Amino acid sequence: MFEQFYEMKMTPFSRDIPTCELYESTGLEEIIGRLNYAADRQLFAVMTGDCGLGKTTAIRRFADQLDSTRYKLLYLSDSKLTPRHFYKGMLEQLGLESKFYRGDAKRQLHREIELMKGIHGLIPVVVVDEAHLLDREMLEEVRFLLNFRMDAQSPMALIMVGQSELWDRLQLQSFSAIRQRIDIQCKLGHLERAEVSQYMERHLSYAGVERDIFSEAAIDEIHQYTSGASRLINKLATHCLLFGSQNGYRIIDDRMVKNVIEGELA
Fold first, then answer.
1. Whole-angstrom Cα distance, residue 266 to residue 263?
2. How far is CA 101 from CA 7, 87, 89, 184, in A?
3. What CATH number has the domain bearing residue 125?
4. Which of 25, 89, 152, 244 could form a Cys-Cys staple with 249, CB 3.0–4.6 A?
5. What pTM value is reported for the model?
6. What is the domain extent for residue 80?
């Protein structure tokens, strides 16, 4: 509806925007660089951030720019992930049927990884999303998973992604053995006011917009309400565009943003 009113070719704040068209803040650029380093050196990385900051989007961007001739990406996202299902999920992504017992499946995975690296020259990059929901048994299994050839080398690059509470859990004394194995830590932060403006401009440009739709005061209100969380920016901006188009406003100002927040998002 609003796309036609504002003469847009695409929907600007949707979840399916190609990763190459997404806004990349300085902080996100640094995180992607760290994840690339972790992949190249087969390190254990942990990326955390508050809800709605774009962790999964960052992983999408990281995954899309990985060289498929050098890396094999394995992605798992399951709040009830157990060690057995962890190995089963990875082996299935490699096109294999997992052995029933955990120990057998683990040995099977290690063999496949050695073949993958030795014959095909591919480095496995394992991404475990929603890792803050993993139970203690699964977190402990990570430590055993990374034990390979008497601790001389890691069999893969492992990237765990979760909300900030994941890092808080890993600070507990009971998880010190896992924490000591972490090679790289990344924390995704909130966007600053200037970055919110750049973020919105980038998304509107992707949609084919060649003029200003949101006033500077409107962007101030959006930043204040969302605290720079991309998911909330997308939601509020979309509601504002709907409101503006339904009421015939070509420019969205701060008063309209306040009306949307109070009337639709409160």
1. 6
2. 58, 10, 14, 31
3. 3.40.50.300
4. 244
5. 0.90
6. 26-188
